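User: Predict the complex with guanosine-5'-triphosphate.
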Amino acid sequence: MLYDKARIYVQAGGGGDGCLSFRREAHVPHGGPDGGDGGHGGDVMLVCDDSLRDLQSYKRRAHYKAKRAAHGEGALRHGADGPLLEIAVPPGTQVRSWDGSTHDMLVPGQRAVVARGGAGGRGNKRFTTSTRQAPRLAERGLPGEDGWIDLRLKLLADVGLVGLPNAGKSSLLARITRAAPKVAAYPFTTLEPVLGTLEGAERQLVIADIPGLIEGASGGAGLGHDFLAHVERTRLLVHVLDLAPVDGTEPVDNHATIEAELRAHDPRLAALPRLLALSKSDLVAPEDAAQAADAWRERLGDHVPVLLTSSATGEGLDALAVALLRSAPLQAQAQAASAAAPADVPLAEHRVFRPAAGKGFSVQRTGDGAFRVQGDGITRLLARHDLDNDEALAHVEGRLRRMGVISALEANGFQAGDDVEIAGVLFELHPG
Ligand SMILES: Nc1nc2c(ncn2[C@@H]2O[C@H](COP(=O)(O)OP(=O)(O)OP(=O)(O)O)[C@@H](O)[C@H]2O)c(=O)[nH]1
Ligand SMILES: [Mg+2]
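Assistant: Here is the predicted structure with guanosine-5'-triphosphate placed in the model:
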């Protein structure tokens, strides 16, 4: 069973608190502030690891938490940073985070931070100013980012074999590579994608055999949608078409069915270069097979090579291997290039997008003499400080004033004595 989907919860470590401390020396009666900063919380990072085949390990474990950082200490000692938590994923894993950011893990060793550790709080030494020589406040560390992450493995293959069930796809893969997929005389023999490697003199090609597609596959019928995802990143498709289907269907109709499903799944799939393998040629008379091949060449035009193949007699298999090795651009090279220069890659999802944390705030009148102030930066400011500490509270008020919160309140009709709720905390603020 190929586990190609997983959902995990990641939590980065919290930052350490800043320290509130004053130097103590035998001969110095009142030492200066010497509280050190808290450390940075541990990040959660995904690492692309080619020793993994699929996402199986995430079926058993879904929660990953990085350690928090150490707090700052006296004598200006910084707290130690939280250690990085690494999570290994197989090449081909697409990552979508709770905040909408995406990563495409393609190249072994590739890394991506999916949850950032919280910043450490500053120790009281940092709050020293010309007018405040003995600050009695220090910041708290911020919590690390956390959320759910969807992992989706999309196999990395150069060539994809597509066709109706029973068309002979797995038989072809078994003949031209060392893979040993199950082959049987009934439809839906292949239940999950199988990879094989075609060894050329100078290059190797990875070929993906996917389960047979049926009408409606692009809409989810027969799990086709999932399977089609595994050929999304190939550079060449081999459409395997049974020359003489036992169910009496017409190859022309069967061909149209598969092509329509490819188009419906993703126009990029439909645009991939193709090869048509007319399979089971041993089951029809040689002159009929040749005639059929000519008819297909005429129908498809020059850009789709047409080959007669038989996995029973071996007819056309060398020609198929040669054609594949000649026409498929190398996936590995293309991928290495794509990781280096994401902008050149046609797959839109390669871009890493992380929405910037909002810095602004909004002021809202919630009733008579009542206001609410919201904003990410403001939430962080409050999270950093112990509001029961008068000096910390005065510091927060000063910051709110400098950020323009007080004047924005006044512009909205705020007067002394009004209630102001800021990031969930009720404040008594002094205008002016
Ligand atoms: N005579 C003959 N039989 C073939 C040939 N290729 C495949 N078959 C037979 O056709 C049947 C289906 O072959 P598979 O390779 O399993 O077909 P598939 O396309 O992988 O089928 P699904 O996995 O169900 O989609 C099996 O009984 C094979 O032995 C061929 O070239 N000649
Ligand atoms: Mg098969």
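The longest strand covers residues 146-153.
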